[in-house]
Every structure is written in structure tokens, then in C-alpha cells.
């Protein structure tokens, strides 16, 4: 185990077996999470992200492999590890008849928070829960519930936090606030965070490193800004004035993928060949009044990985 | 085991009780209905015949003692179901909470609610029928202890079954305990049961308590060997139920059911 890693996952697998069939949800996955690092765990639905997180939380028994937090095996030191770890998911429910304050209170006892009253007050302030404290969970909106879920996950001053799509049901302003809060917690307390999201700009903003998982396997791992560089093609968009048909013919001739969007055409092309293509269009008298070049981003990489694998 | 985590779960269920009219009412409503219905029936029977002395005390004691068994079982299964209905198991078990701490917490909340429910029902019985459950003296303590152990054993067994096979079997939470009630001989002596049922009754720990309760009323004696047998059977059943519940939890963890529940 690397001395910097607070979490080390080695050869983790999960096979679900029923009488007639078996299904490998996670296949020999290994990775580490460094102190103060925010690691994105990305992949399409059913890729194995949630199964991995469940195993990391000890609520799903792995078929094989090991999970170590702070150099200790999760299975053997579950209690001391989980006191320093927490979890939040947009899709987790809470006891709907309890009030917000009651939920925070009983949770604070689960984690034996010493400065209980002060900590709860701080959490209430930080997550703007004050107007909701006496409200029953059943009466909260999806966004308020998500906020409470995230708030609850910070109650024990976690050293490792597993966040499963934490901002999925939040309005843009609250989501931005939560992202800034997470970044600040990392900066101030060196909290290590494993973060899943389908919001790629969010992942680019928040994560130091990302792991792509597909069909239970890790298919790529790098900094979010490096992964799109693997894709050779940029997207050239031209809003046509005249010559759309001839442009399409040229794309066919040069075997360039393209899409028609009303008056515009979006062409997938290597950046070094753009000038040459524009030159040819000019020679043919094709006219356009707007041009934009979009370099590949994390979302393009995501789509590329998923399409390639499927 | 950590006391703060057990306390966390006790207050979690206490908060829930505070907000649940249905859970509050079943602590007081059903005992009241039973006491009115069966108390008045036994008063009527006694007014018709003097051959059955103390019938009111026998019936009312049966009702009050059955509350103990039922409370013990009900608190385990219904609180477990409550976590399933709320999909809250995942929140509990991503924390350091251990399954045995959860079990102890529902034992404690069961005792608290049993004391409240029984206290209310005994007061009501005293005012309505001049029947005093404390006339059993110190025997009340081992009787109550044995009966709640029976309730816990059945409760853990049912919770384990629901954990393995899902909420489609949740009706067991309300019905399973009734299966042992005819063999417990709550209101009648074991001797009136058919022979095969008497054999079954010998394997039901609560039957020894109800039998000795009546013996204390009619003959002012208690068979200590039978009392011991009741505890011995409870010890065996509760141990097996705990093992079964723990195994069901491990199985649920293997199948990924904790996050689904």
C-alpha cells in the first residue's frame, strides 16, 4: 500500500450468483485514493460504480479482493474505519417521519460526536438547514433531502467521504454551493473523496483524477484534463449560408463523420486537418457565416468509451 | 458493543413513536379492546356460574401476560420493517453500528413500550375489574422475563425470514406470534388440548408461564422446575434465533440486499 493512500482497493470483484446464471458486476478492480484527493468514479449506468461503493462501505460482501482504509482491512476493522468514513447519495432515503433535527441527533450518537450540539448547529448553518430543522423528512423536497443527506455525511468529520451523485437533484445555485463546500473541506481538512457523477463539467471542476469503469472493469484512469486528449477528433461546426449539400458530399468523400443540425453541419475532424478542409470549402465557393471548433472534453471521452465498449 | 450507538437507535425509535399515531395507538388501543371484550365476557360467565372462581383474574392475567409476549416480538419485527419501508438500512449499516447493537436497541425499546403498555393495561384492569396483576408478587418478574424472551425469539426469527425473503412475507410480523398462542394455553389449561397439541405445548416456553400463573391463582403454588424449563427453552430458541438473524444479515450483505431494502 502506498503510504499516501487512505484507501487501497486491490483486485476487487463481485459476482452475483443465482441458480441459473452468474453476473460479474465488478471485475478485478484496483485503485487507491490519496489523502486530500478527490477521485471521480465514472461510468455508464450499470457499470459497477454503485456496487463498488457498496463494497467500500461494507454493506456488500466482495467475492474476492481486499479493501484497506488507513492501512487496515475493512472486514477486520469495520467499526474503527467506519467511524472515520461517511457516505451520501441522492438516491438514499431517510426515515420519513423523523424531523431534520431528530435525524441529525440520532446520527450524531451513532458516530459518538463529542461536541454534539455545536457540531449539529454548525452543520445546520453550513447546509442552510435552519428553516427545516423541525420539518418532517416526508415534507422535504428532493433537493432539501439531498442537502440533508450531504449534511449528515459531514457530521462525523469524515476523513474519507463517498459521494454518489451528490448534486443530482439540486438546483444549479445549491449544486455550485455544495461543490465549493466540498472543495473547501478538502482544502481545509484534507478530506479524501470518492465522487460519482454523470455531470461531466462538475467532474472536471471537482476531481483531481478520474477512473472510468465500464462493464465492471477499469477502462481508463487519469486526470480529467488528460483523458479527452486521447480522442483525436475535434468538432467543427459551420452555420451554412450556401453549399450545405456540397459540404456533405465533401465529408463523404473524405470519410468524415458529420451531423446536420438545421442550417449547421458538425464535422468530426482532426485539429491539424481543419485548415485544409476550410481551404477546400473556400475553393468550392461554399459560404458559411459562423464557425466554431469544440475540442473534445470529458463528456466526449465518456461517450467514446461507452460506444467503443458496446 | 457501544452504548452510544445503542442509545442512538433507541432514540431513533422513540422519535418515530412520537410522530406515529398508529404506533402510539397500538400500545393502548388493542389492550383496551381486549380488556373490555374479554373482561366483560368473563364477568358475564362468572355471573352465570359460581363454579369458576377467579375467572376474571385468569382471563385478565392472560391478556396482560400476552401483551408481554406480543410486545417483545412486535417491536423487533415492526421496527425492522420500518427500516425496510423507509429504505434506511443502508444509512444504519454504513455507520459503525453493529447488527447486535441494533438487536439490543430493539430489545430495549421493546421493554420500554412493554412497561408503558402493560402499565396502562394493568391500571385499566384494576379500575374496571378490581384485578391486580401485582397479586402475583415477585413471581411477576420471572414470568415477565420469560415471556419477553419468547417474544424476542419469535421476533428475531420473523425478522430473519423477512431479511432473507423480502417484505412479501411481512404479514408474518402480525400473524406469526398467533401461531404459538393456542399452544401457550393463554386462557385455558394445557390439559384440555388434544394429546398431540399437549406435546407441542411442552416445547413452547410461554405455556409453562401461563400454566404456572393459573396454578398461582388457584393453588398458590409455582412449579419451579417448569419455570426453569421455560427459561431453558427460551435460551435455546433465542440463541438459535440470534444465529439465524445474523446469518440472514450476512446473506443479505452477500446478495446486496441492504441497499435495496
From TrEMBL, chain A:
Keywords: ATP-binding, Nucleotide-binding, Transport. Pfam families: ABC_tran. Gene3D superfamilies: P-loop containing nucleotide triphosphate hydrolases. The keyword Transmembrane helix does not apply. InterPro entries: AAA+_ATPase, ABC_transporter-like_ATP-bd, ABC_transporter-like_CS, ABC_transporter_ATP-binding, P-loop_NTPase. Transmembrane segments: none annotated. Belongs to the ABC transporter superfamily. This is ABC transporter domain-containing protein. It comes from Candidatus Roizmanbacteria bacterium RIFOXYA1_FULL_41_12.
Amino acid at each position: 500500500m502506498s503510504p499516501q493512500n487512505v484507501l487501497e482497493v486491490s483486485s476487487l470483484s463481485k459476482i452475483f450468483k443465482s441458480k441459473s446464471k452468474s453476473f460479474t458486476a465488478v471485475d478485478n478492480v484496483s485503485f487507491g485514493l490519496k489523502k486530500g484527493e478527490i477521485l471521480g468514479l465514472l461510468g455508464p449506468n450499470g457499470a459497477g460504480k454503485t456496487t463498488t461503493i457498496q463494497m467500500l462501505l461494507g454493506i456488500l460482501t466482495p467475492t474476492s479482493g481486499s479493501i484497506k482504509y488507513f492501512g487496515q482491512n475493512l472486514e477486520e476493522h469495520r467499526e474503527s474505519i467506519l467511524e472515520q468514513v461517511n457516505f451520501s447519495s441522492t438516491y438514499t432515503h431517510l426515515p420519513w417521519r423523523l424531523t431534520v433535527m431528530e435525524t441529525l441527533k440520532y446520527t450524531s450518537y451513532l458516530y459518538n460526536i463529542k461536541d454534539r450540539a455545536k457540531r449539529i448547529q454548525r452543520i445546520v448553518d453550513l447546509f442552510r438547514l435552519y428553516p427545516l430543522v423541525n420539518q418532517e423528512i416526508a415534507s422535504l423536497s428532493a433537493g432539501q433531502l439531498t442537502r440533508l443527506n450531504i449534511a449528515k455525511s459531514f457530521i462525523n468529520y469524515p476523513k474519507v467521504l463517498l459521494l454518489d451523485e451528490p448534486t443530482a437533484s439540486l438546483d444549479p445555485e445549491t449544486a455550485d454551493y455544495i461543490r465549493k463546500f466540498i472543495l473547501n473541506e478538502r482544502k481545509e481538512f484534507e478530506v479524501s473523496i470518492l465522487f460519482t457523477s454523470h455531470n461531466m463539467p462538475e467532474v472536471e471542476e471537482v476531481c483531481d483524477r478520474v477512473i472510468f469503469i465500464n462493464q465492471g472493469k477499469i477502462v481508463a484512469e487519469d486526470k480529467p484534463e488528460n483523458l479527452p486528449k486521447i480522442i483525436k477528433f475535434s468538432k467543427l461546426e459551420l452555420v451554412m449560408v450556401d453549399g450545405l449539400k456540397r459540404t456533405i458530399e465533401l465529408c463523404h468523400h473524405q470519410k468524415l463523420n458529420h451531423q446536420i443540425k438545421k442550417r449547421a453541419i458538425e464535422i468530426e475532424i482532426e485539429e491539424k486537418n481543419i485548415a485544409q478542409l476550410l481551404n477546400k470549402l473556400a475553393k468550392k465557393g461554399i459560404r458559411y457565416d459562423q464557425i466554431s471548433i469544440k475540442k473534445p472534453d470529458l463528456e466526449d471521452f465518456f461517450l467514446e468509451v461507452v460506444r467503443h465498449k458496446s | 458493543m457501544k452504548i452510544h450507538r445503542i442509545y442512538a437507535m433507541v432514540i431513533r425509535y422513540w422519535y418515530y413513536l412520537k410522530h406515529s399515531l398508529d404506533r402510539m395507538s397500538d400500545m393502548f388501543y388493542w389492550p383496551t379492546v381486549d380488556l373490555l371484550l374479554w373482561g366483560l365476557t368473563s364477568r358475564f360467565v362468572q355471573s352465570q356460574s359460581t363454579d369458576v372462581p377467579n375467572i376474571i383474574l385468569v382471563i385478565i392475567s392472560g391478556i396482560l401476560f400476552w401483551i408481554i409476549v406480543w410486545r417483545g416480538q412486535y417491536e423487533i419485527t415492526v421496527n425492522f420493517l420500518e427500516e425496510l419501508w423507509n429504505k434506511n438500512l443502508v444509512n444504519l449499516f454504513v455507520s459503525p453500528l453493529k447488527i447486535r447493537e441494533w438487536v439490543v436497541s430493539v430489545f430495549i425499546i421493546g421493554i420500554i413500550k412493554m412497561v408503558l403498555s402493560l402499565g396502562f393495561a394493568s391500571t385499566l384492569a384494576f379500575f374496571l375489574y378490581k384485578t391486580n396483576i401485582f397479586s402475583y408478587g415477585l413471581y411477576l418478574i420471572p414470568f415477565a422475563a420469560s415471556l419477553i424472551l419468547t417474544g424476542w425469539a419469535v421476533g428475531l426469527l420473523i425478522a430473519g425470514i423477512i431479511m432473507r425473503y423480502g417484505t412479501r412475507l411481512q404479514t408474518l410480523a402480525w400473524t406469526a406470534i398467533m401461531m404459538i398462542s393456542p399452544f401457550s394455553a393463554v386462557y385455558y389449561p394445557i390439559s384440555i388440548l388434544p394429546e398431540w397439541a399437549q406435546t407441542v405445548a411442552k416445547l413452547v416456553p410461554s405455556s409453562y408461564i401461563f400454566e404456572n400463573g393459573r396454578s398461582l391463582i388457584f393453588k398458590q403454588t409455582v412449579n419451579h422446575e417448569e419455570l426453569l424449563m421455560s427459561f431453558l427453552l427460551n435460551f435455546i430458541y433465542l440463541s438459535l434465533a440470534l444465529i439465524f438473524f445474523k446469518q440472514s444479515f450476512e446473506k443479505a450483505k452477500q446478495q446486496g440486499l441492504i441497499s435495496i431494502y
